[in-house]
Amino acid sequence: MANYSAVLDDVFAALSDPTRRAVLRRLGAGEASVSDLAADTSMALPSFLKHVRTLEDSELVRTSKKGRVRMCSLRRERFVLIEDWLLAQRGIWEGRTDRLEELVVDLGKEHP
Amino acid sequence: MNPDLDLVIERIIRAPRPAIWKAWTTPELFAKWWIPEPYCCRVEWFAPHAGGGFVTSMSENGSAFTPHMDAAFLVVDEAERLVFTNAIDSTLRPANPLPVAVTGEVTLVDHAEGTLYRIVARHADARARARHDELGLSEGWGSVTGQLARLAEE
């Protein structure tokens, strides 16, 4: 359960940003190059690349080189995780409960 | 309870009620568990009394923070019960939070081994469904939900 919660936390963190959601929407229509995606935003390329990396780390997006161009595409299999959104919310709360429990039990050991 | 919209988590935590209450209502402690590593949580505003604000932000690198939660406390009964919602923000303005509006209810009950910790999260569904449609992901995933449920039960 802990691993599963961590995965969901990553996915939701990736989805929590409007720029990243715009990228996902665009990729829903088909693959696109990093530079084309960046051009859709008013953002400098280095800042935009951070968003691409976050999407890659959450495995919502994969990138690959085609010649000199880096292409992005959607990893649709990952969206399975948020299909059942209630289950996803449960994952987030289970993770929070795990961490809260760990913290209060540790504090109890320090100050018995 | 609406089983399509609400969830309940119950856990026996081996600590007394005041210790859990402290971890929930002390900003420095709250920041340690609210958001998972490697993300860093910053508590912007935390006024644990009825009508008080509850604002957190998160960061991937410890310098650039983005908004995470902007909510208000509805009920704060010392070491017993705490209710908050992001359906109104920390200034008591009606809000449309992403990914979904939630009312979270925490109750603490004495238990032989510590405390029975109970979370009830009641959700509005409109935003979650809308986001799903917005991303164009609505079709073709129904069959895998069962697989996912089994994964979560492992």
Describe this structure in words.
The complex is a heterodimer of chains A (112) and B (154). By secondary structure, chain A is an alpha+beta fold. Chain A has helices spanning 2-15, 18-28, 34-40, 45-57, 80-83, 85-110; strands at residues 32-33, 61-66, 69-74. Chain A has a three-stranded antiparallel β-sheet with strand order 1-3-2. In chain A, a hairpin with a 2-residue loop joins strand 2 and strand 3. Chain A is elongated. The model of chain A has no long low-confidence stretch (mean pLDDT 82). Chain B is 22% helix and 39% strand. Chain B is of the alpha+beta class. In chain B, strand 2 and strand 3 form a beta hairpin. The two termini of chain B are 25 Å apart. In chain B, helix 1 packs across helix 2 (27-33). Chain B has four helices and seven strands. Classes of the chains: A alpha+beta (112), B alpha+beta (154). Chains A and B meet through helix 1, helix 2, helix 5 and helix 6 of A and strand 1, helix 1, helix 2, strand 7 and helix 3 of B.
Beta percentage of chain A is: 5-15%
CATH class of chain A: Mainly Alpha
The name of the CATH topology of chain B is: Alpha-D-Glucose-1,6-Bisphosphate, Chain A, domain 4
Which parts of chain B are unreliable, with pLDDT below 50 for 5 consecutive residues or more? 132-154
| Helical content of chain A (DSSP H or I, runs of 4+) | 55-70%
- Broad structural category of chain B: alpha+beta
**How many helices of chain B in DSSP terms?**
4
- Mean of the pLDDT scores of chain A? 82
Mean pLDDT of chain B: 81
